[in-house]
Amino acid sequence: MARLHEYQGKALLREHQIPVPRGGMATTPEEAARIAAEIGGEVMVKAQAWITGRASLGGIRRAATPEEAAAAAQAMLGMAVKGFTVEQVLVEERLAVAREFYAGIIVDDREQAPLVLFASVGGTGIEEIAAQHPDKVAQQHVDIETGLLDFQARNLVRQAGIHGQLQSDLAGLLTGLYDVARTYEARAAEINPLVLTSDGKLYAADCRLTIDDYAVFRHPELGIEIAREFDRPPTALEKIAWQVEAKDYRGTFYFIQMAQGFRKGEGYIGFHGAGGGGSMMSMDAILSYGYKLANFVDTSGNPPASKVYRAAKIILSQPGIDGYFGSGSGVASQEQFHSARGLVKAFLEEHIDIPVVIRLGGNAEDKAVEILEWLNGRVPAPVEGYKKDDSAWFCAGRLDALIKEGRLLDVPPLPPRPKPEKPYTFETVTGGTVTFDHAVCARCESKVCVEECARGILRLEDGLPVLNISPEEAKKGRCVECLACEVDCFFRGAGGGYVELPIPGLEEYRASLK
After folding, report:
1. Domains of the chain
2. pTM beyond 0.85, yes or no
């Protein structure tokens, strides 16, 4: 899920006529002082970070003058709290609070419906409120077709012990919050505290909005860089990885960096999982040998070879990892040789020099392991492939042994690919390009590219591979980027086929590390 900062959420509340304190977002002390001067009087300066307990960490401060606001912003900007570096502060008027409430909407997966929560006390989490004051909490599931009706909202507030005009005012605010959540497809929308001031006005003093991952693409106006719930801003490499996932609906690619700034020899492993439960088990296995995880990656749900390739390239963009460990559920239903080809292409290009252990259990696992082991003797590092009957702990032990052994072959990297003499080219769905050098293909005896083409979109014409569909159909997705026309061609053919798969921003990222 993708979280919004407080200032972003309050802007959406304001659009739906939910009152919020006057104020604005600042990225410098000077901006904070200017906003405080415009407000006049005392202000609150609040660090914008996806964490709880900001006040106890020095992330919420009161300022009586613009100068004090600038000083508070100066202290917060750049502050590291729970892995989050503060880059913005919210400066807003200080409210004269007479009473606090809680208002929230979450998606109840069990009931498959939104759940509206209201409490006549606020300031702490709803779980704590419910435990300490169960009589002051009310809840109501909402029919998605009708939305939260006025009488339902009034009943909620009444059940929490609120009557009179305040009941009506709070009910109107609840329906407005529901509209915000529905409009922006939020998994959760909370106002805590919702405050009543001494002059009888209601304000959203704080708010949290979390947008459903799968709805982010429908709301570009929110400016969400990654549809993931982080407790910190995404790293540059996470942004690059997200663009791979965001533009390719086939299967899943989840990437998160778990450590940065480490060096070779410190025991960090590039982890490549497949399937949630199997990945968790496999991470436990590698951790049990005393290693640490540089990253978590999951490529599952029948990903194409091209997505696995891009995932591997991104994992290997982390300098200092001591090994590459791939392991998932071991019973995957998709053909595992697609993942194997993606890994092989990445490892060849990287001329990989760290030990590799990959467990590819599932359909066609024998063929997948065979493809992986084609690499041995072609790259400096040892590469071992295993199947479903080999436990994650056994495979982790093999990686441990290979790292400790430290054996590398003196293998030269692949020479630069020559310019094709007779190129035959077509584009793929993710912006890739498939090229056959027909001058080389003419010398190939196996024609393995046609034999192994996953969708059977290639045929031979005068002994040379060509499309038997239109280039437009190939670009729309009929070519599934199975990579057989490069990987199998390299090992079993004449080497005339290759696939270019761009990863926007990756080369620039790598250059920045040097």
Report:
1. 22-93 (3.30.1490.20), 97-222 (3.30.470.20), 236-405 (3.40.50.261), 423-500 (3.30.70)
2. no
